[in-house]
Specification:
707 residues, mainly beta, Pectate Lyase C-like, eight-stranded parallel barrel, eight-stranded parallel sheet, elongated
C-alpha cells in the first residue's frame, strides 16, 4: 500500500509539475530519492514570488539541480523577483511560457550576468607539434576549405589569435586590435566560416566544443528597474550571457518596470551578451536600446547595448524588435561576427565595430542609428527600410572598409534630417594609418532603391549613391570595386533627384581583381549607372563648377601606371552633368539627356561614345562651352540629337557654340552616324532664313573623323 501511494504521489507531482501546476516542495525533499522528478520548477525549491524575497537564490538552485540531473526546467507561470543573485547557470532547456521576472538592476555586476548559458565542456587550448603548427599556419588563409590536421577538433569552434601581429589601429582611440580568426570544424577538418586573414604565427589556439544538441530557452517576460550601480566608466552586465553553441532563445519580452525609466549613468554590456559560440538563434523578442542622452545632454560616456556579440559564427536574429528615439544608443554592439543574419526585425541599429564577415539583412526595418560595419565577404540587404541619412555607413574608426561584395536590392532610405545622404557612406580618415589596406568593396550592385524625402519635402541637400573621401595624402592605395552597378534609383517626396558620386584621383585607387595583371592600357573595372532619377541642374551652381552628378578628380600627371581603369556606362539618366578630368577610362552614354560635360584639356586617356542621346545644354549667359569633349582615342555619336541652349524657353542663336563641337554649315568634330538637329535649332534656323548646306548635312549623317 505504501509503495502504491508513493508511486501515485510521484506520478502526480511529475504530471502537475510538467503542466506548470507548482507546489512548494522543499529542496531537500526534491533532492532525496523519494521523488521521481522528470522536470524542475522554481516552487519546488522554495521560490516565493512576494516581491520581498530574492527569488534568484531558489531559481539558481533549481537550475543547478536541473543541470546536475540533466532535467529540463518547466516553469510556465508565476512572478519572481531577482535581486542580488547572479550567474544562474543554464545547461538544460527551459520552458518558461508566461513567468514574469523582475530584475533589480541596482545589483548588476560588472562581469556576472543574471543568467549564464554555458557549455558543459571547458575550452581546450590546442597544442601542436612544431611541424603540424607550421602546416596549419600555412593553410589558414582566405579560400581554405579543409585543414586535415584539425580533424580531431570536429564539432568545435576554433579561435586563433596572434597578439604580436596587429590587425588594425583604431583611430580616435588609437587602440590596437590583434590579428584573430575563428571557424567551425566539421568532419575530416572541413572548415565552416570563411577565413579572411592569414597568419605567420599565433599566441593562442583554442577549441570551444559546440555541443551535440540544441539548448532552447522559450518564453519569459523581464521587467528591469532601469538603474545601474556606480558612476564610473565601466560596463555592467545584465540579462543573459551565452557562450554555449547551438542555443535558441525565443518568445521573450524585455522592458522597464511600469513607472520606471532608464536612469543609468553607466553602460550596459547587453541584455543578451553572446561570445565564443557557433549557431545562435534569437527570435520573437522585444528588447530595449538604452538611453545615452537625457534632456539634450549626453550622460552615459560610452556606447550602451541591448545585444553584444564577440567571436560568434552563424548568429540568426529573427523577428526582434528594439526601437527608440535619437536619445537611445544602438541596440547592437559587436566585434568579430561571421555569417550574421537578420530577418523580419525592427531595430534601431545593426552594428559590427570591427570585422563582420558575411551579412544578410532581409525584410526588416532599421531605425535612427542605422547600419554600421567594417569587414568583408557577402553583404546582402534586401526588402529593407532604413531611417536615417545612409543605408550603410562603414565605420570611420576602423577604416570604413568592406573587403567583399555588396548587394542592396528593393530597399528604401527614409531621410531623417536635412543634410547630405547616401546609399553607401565610406567615411574614413585618409591621414590615419589603419595598418591594413582599406577600400570600398570588391563589387557593388545596387538595384531598386528609393530615397524617401516625404518628411523633408523642402530639403535640397544632395543625395548621393556613394560617398567616398576626396583626397589622400598618403602613398598607400585605396581599393575601389572592379564591378560597380547602380540601377533603378528613385526619389519620392521632393522634386530634386540624386547625384552619382565624386571620385578621387585614380592614381590613388586600385582594384582587387585579377584583371589588374592585364595591360596598363586596358580597362580593369566596370562602373554602371542605369535608370537613375538625377537632380535637376542648377544654373547658378554650374557657373561655379558645382552640382556635378559625377565628378572625377584630375589625374596626377606625375603618377606612374594607373591601377584603376574603368569602363563607365551611363544609361537612361536625364539632365546629366559630369566632370571627367583627364583620367584613364572609357565612357559610354546610352539613351541619356545631357546638360554639361567637362573634360580636361589634357584629355581623358580613352574614348567616349554617345548612343541615342539628346544634348540639351543649359544656357547660362553663354559663358562657356557646355560640352568640352576631349579624348586620346576617339569620340563617336550614334543617332544623337543636338539642341541649342535656351533662355526662358527660347533658343538663343548666339549661344549655339556652347555645344562645343558644332558650327552650323561650317564644322563638326568627332565621328557621327545619323546625328540630327533638334526642333529648337531647326525652328531657329527657319526664323533666320538659314538653309543647311549639303556638305554639313552629310557630315551629320555620316562622318568618320580620320577621313
Amino acid at each position: 500500500m505504501t509503495n502504491k501511494r508513493l508511486y501515485s504521489r510521484r506520478q502526480a507531482i511529475t504530471t502537475l509539475s510538467a503542466a506548470g501546476i507548482l507546489f512548494p516542495f522543499h529542496r531537500s525533499e526534491v533532492e532525496s530519492n523519494n521523488m521521481d522528478v522528470h522536470s524542475v520548477n522554481y516552487r519546488m525549491f522554495g521560490a516565493v514570488g512576494d516581491g520581498q524575497n530574492d527569488d534568484g537564490v531558489q531559481i539558481k538552485a533549481a537550475h543547478a539541480y536541473a543541470n546536475a540531473h540533466r532535467l529540463p526546467v518547466i516553469n510556465l507561470s508565476g512572478e519572481y523577483w531577482i535581486k542580488e543573485t547572479n550567474d544562474i547557470v543554464i545547461q538544460e532547456s527551459v520552458q518558461w511560457g508566461g513567468p514574469v521576472f523582475h530584475i533589480d538592476e541596482r545589483f548588476n555586476a560588472r562581469r556576472e550576468n543574471r543568467f549564464k548559458v554555458v557549455s558543459r565542456t571547458a575550452p581546450i587550448p590546442i597544442e601542436l607539434s612544431a611541424e603540424t603548427k607550421q602546416s596549419v599556419l600555412s593553410q589558414i588563409k582566405p579560400g581554405v576549405s579543409i585543414i586535415p590536421e584539425l580533424a580531431p577538433y570536429k564539432n568545435c569552434l576554433l579561435f586563433i589569435r596572434d597578439t604580436n601581429d596587429l590587425a588594425t589601429l583604431r583611430t580616435g582611440y588609437l587602440s590596437t586590435v590583434p590579428r584573430q580568426e575563428f571557424f567551425y570544424v566539421e568532419e575530416h577538418g572541413r572548415i565552416i566560416g570563411n577565413v579572411a586573414w592569414s597568419f605567420k604565427d599565433y599566441t593562442e589556439l583554442t577549441a570551444y566544443d559546440a555541443e551535440t544538441g540544441y539548448l532552447t530557452i522559450d518564453g519569459g517576460t523581464f521587467f528591469l528597474s532601469g538603474d545601474n550601480p556606480g558612476t564610473e566608466s565601466t560596463y555592467w552586465a545584465s540579462g543573459f550571457s551565452i557562450s554555449r553553441s547551438r542555443t535558441v532563445i525565443r518568445n521573450q519580452w524585455v522592458g522597464l518596470e511600469k513607472g520606471r525609466s532608464d536612469t543609468s549613468l553607466t553602460m550596459r554590456s547587453g541584455f543578451y551578451s553572446i561570445s565564443n559560440a557557433y549557431d545562435i538563434q534569437l527570435e520573437n523578442i522585444r528588447l530595449l536600446p538604452w538611453e545615452i542622452i537625457r534632456n539634450g545632454v549626453r550622460v552615459v560616456p560610452e556606447g550602451t547595448y541591448g545585444i553584444m556579440l564577440g567571436v560568434v559564427l552563424n548568429p540568426v536574429f529573427r523577428n526582434i524588435t528594439a526601437e527608440g528615439s535619437s536619445d537611445h544608443w544602438g541596440v547592437f554592439g559587436s566585434n568579430l561576427v561571421k555569417n550574421f543574419r537578420i530577418e523580419r526585425c525592427q531595430l534601431n541599429r545593426v552594428d559590427v565595430h570591427f570585422h563582420c564577415w558575411n551579412l544578410t539583412i532581409v525584410d526588416s526595418q532599421i531605425g535612427y542609428k542605422g547600419i554600421t560595419f567594417t569587414g568583408g565577404g557577402e553583404m546582402l540587404i534586401e526588402n529593407t527600410t532604413v531611417t536615417g541619412n545612409n543605408i550603410v555607413s562603414f565605420r570611420y574608426d576602423y577604416g570604413a572598409y568592406w573587403d567583399g561584395h555588396i548587394r542592396i536590392r528593393h530597399c528604401r532610405l527614409k531621410l531623417l534630417a536635412p543634410r547630405s545622404a547616401s546609399i553607401l557612406n565610406f567615411n574614413l580618415d585618409l591621414n590615419h594609418d589603419y595598418k591594413h589596406l582599406v577600400g570600398f568593396g570588391r563589387t557593388i550592385h545596387i538595384e531598386d532603391v528609393v530615397f524617401d524625402a516625404s518628411s523633408l519635402p523642402q530639403s535640397d541637400e544632395p543625395l548621393w549613391l556613394m560617398s567616398v573621401p576626396q583626397s589622400d595624402e598618403r602613398s598607400q592605395m585605396v581599393y575601389f570595386p572592379y564591378d560597380c552597378v547602380f540601377k533603378d534609383i528613385w526619389v519620392e517626396g521632393r522634386s530634386q533627384g540624386v547625384r552619382l558620386m565624386r571620385l578621387p584621383d585614380f592614381s590613388k585607387l586600385c582594384t582587387l581583381s585579377s584583371t589588374d595583371a592585364r595591360s596598363g592600357h586596358q580597362p580593369n573595372a566596370r562602373l554602371v549607372f542605369s535608370n537613375i532619377s538625377l537632380e535637376k541642374p542648377d544654373e547658378e551652381k554650374l557657373k561655379t563648377g558645382g552640382a556635378f552628378h559625377l565628378q572625377i578628380a584630375s589625374r596626377n600627371v606625375q603618377a606612374e601606371e594607373i591601377l584603376y581603369r574603368p569602363d563607365i556606362t551611363i544609361e537612361r539618366c536625364n539632365d546629366f552633368v559630369g566632370d571627367f578630368g583627364n583620367q584613364q577610362m572609357n565612357i559610354d552614354f546610352d539613351h541619356c539627356s545631357l546638360t554639361k560635360i567637362v573634360v580636361s584639356k589634357d584629355k581623358i586617356k580613352g574614348n567616349m561614345r554617345f548612343n541615342f542621346c539628346r544634348f540639351l545644354p543649359m544656357g547660362y549667359d553663354g559663358a562657356e562651352c557646355a560640352f568640352q569633349l576631349e579624348a586620346e582615342q576617339f569620340i563617336e555619336f550614334l543617332c544623337c540629337e543636338l539642341n541649342a541652349p535656351e533662355k526662358d524657353g527660347i533658343a538663343i542663336p548666339e549661344w549655339l557654340d556652347q555645344l562645343g563641337f558644332v558650327k552650323i554649315n561650317q564644322s563638326l568634330r568627332f565621328n557621327h552616324l545619323h546625328t540630327r538637329l533638334g526642333a529648337n535649332i531647326v525652328s531657329m534656323l527657319q526664323k533666320q532664313g538659314i538653309k543647311l548646306n549639303n556638305d554639313f548635312l552629310a557630315k551629320l549623317q555620316n562622318q568618320f573623323e580620320l577621313s
